[in-house]
Specification:
Elements: H1 12-17, H2 21-30, E1 31-39, H3 47-54, H4 58-61, E2 62-70, E3 76-79, H5 100-108, H6 117-120, E4 134-138, E5 146-152, H7 162-182, E6 188-195, E7 207-213, H8 219-235, H9 239-250, E8 253-256, E9 259-263, E10 270-277, H10 293-305, E11 312-317, E12 332-338, H11 351-355, E13 358-360, H12 364-372
Parallel strand pairs: 3-13
Antiparallel strand pairs: 1-2, 2-3, 4-5, 5-7, 6-7, 6-11, 8-9, 9-10, 10-12, 11-12
Helix pairs in contact: 2-9, 7-10
């Protein structure tokens, strides 16, 4: 379902009030939504600047800020669309192809070690996993006991298509299976994909990474699992099912095959899209990441095409490999965020993002419209 044309994040409290009783109740149970109004009193000298940057002085005098907090994960975001116009802001410009300067920086970085992984990157103790266009390498400076690179054949990190995404996920699955042959205690898989320096990639050449952890998943994944368990105990409900029901009712979610994507109301950074796929109940050794290939490729296609995103982060995770009763009901997940203009001199993460809530300029309803097309 596409959101109605007049649906905007600024009107979220009103939109929630119009939901059917059950979804309204679930929304109330899942989220705190607080709208507040901020006012400014600019001196007349500021008028030309305000008009130039924000379109009109009027638009800046009274501003609505909507703050959404997930009551179970305690993820939260403050939305104010005016911030999209702020100088040095970090939201990618819609529809724009990568700028010539970004293209040039990608082209200048071709003499890198990922050109020749066999001779210029280390292998894991069990060797390498090779796909059609992705090969693994051991990470030189690891963030976990098992931490490897998934190096793309293609240098251009923006040359992304469905075949590449499918191959990447297949290779990550095969890599995890190889790790578990030598270390069965390693069971929490986390795939991370940082595209361009702006998104934290130290090398431009297309690549992703994967970790397989003992004992605990990465902290924020554990946070989601803990929320699911607390929710079940406190309400008797299915956290992820109820979450999807609210997003669907708002027009912020849609089905893609067996998966559902949602335009996050509590994004970590701009334009977060989460893809949820109910975990298979079959072989616990099997984490069918490849089932996420089509929906994830679809999100990336819309982001890189229509929304003009170039710098982005993706994470893929799910329940642990092997039996784990406390993770039953946890889906396979892919999270995507836009990291904005790669040439911006201002960081898009600051004290509020690190220690408070995300401050977000993009509208989840616009993200949902872009994805629905
Ligand atoms: Zn390269």
């Amino acid at each position: 379902m596409v959101p109605p044309p007049d649906a905007q994040i600024e009107r979220l409290p009103e939109l929630l009030a119009t939901l059917p009783a059950r979804e309204r109740e679930l929304a109330q149970r899942l989220f705190s939504v607080v709208a507040s109004e901020g006012t400014i009193v600019p001196p007349p000298e500021m008028a030309p600047w305000l008009e130039r940057v924000f379109g009109s002085v009027e638009a800046t005098l009274r501003q609505r800020v909507v703050r959404v907090t997930n009551r179970w994960t305690f993820e939260g975001a403050a939305f104010n669309s005016l911030r999209a116009h702020r100088p040095g802001v970090s939201l990618s410009a819609g529809g724009a192809a990568p700028s010539p300067e970004v293209r040039a920086r990608i082209a200048r970085a071709t003499d890198d070690d990922f050109r020749d992984p066999d001779h210029r990157t280390p292998a894991d103790s069990f060797g390498r996993v090779r796909g059609h266009q992705v090969v693994t390498a051991a990470n030189v400076a690891k963030a976990d006991g098992w931490h490897s690179l998934l190096i793309f054949d293609r240098h251009d990190p923006l040359a992304i298509d469905r075949a590449l995404v499918a191959d990447l996920l297949r290779v990550a699955e095969a890599w995890a299976a190889r790790v578990r042959e030598t270390d069965p205690e390693a069971r929490h898989l986390f795939l991370l994909w940082n595209c361009l320096w702006r998104a934290g990639a130290s090398l431009v050449h297309g690549h992703a990474q994967v970790t397989l952890s003992h004992t605990m998943a990465h902290a924020r994944v554990e946070g989601w699992a803990a929320a699911m368990r607390r929710y079940a105990v406190a309400t008797g409900g299915d956290y992820f099912a109820d979450l999807v029901a609210v997003y669907r009712a708002l027009g912020l979610a849609a089905t893609d095959g067996d998966a559902v994507w949602l335009a996050s109301l509590t994004p970590a950074r701009e334009r977060e899209v989460d893809i949820l796929l109910p975990a298979a109940t079959g072989d616990p050794e099997e984490l069918p990441l490849r089932a996420l290939a089509a929906p994830l490729a679809g999100v990336l296609e819309a982001a890189l095409g229509q929304l003009g995103v170039t710098a982005f982060n993706v994470a893929v995770f799910g329940p642990p490999l092997g039996l784990a009763a406390e993770w039953v009901g946890f889906p396979l997940v892919a999270r995507f965020v836009d990291r904005g203009d790669p040439l911006s001199p201002v960081a898009d993460v600051a004290a509020l993002e690190l220690f408070g809530s995300s401050v977000i300029a993009s509208d989840p309803f616009d993200v949902a419209r872009a994805l629905a097309e």
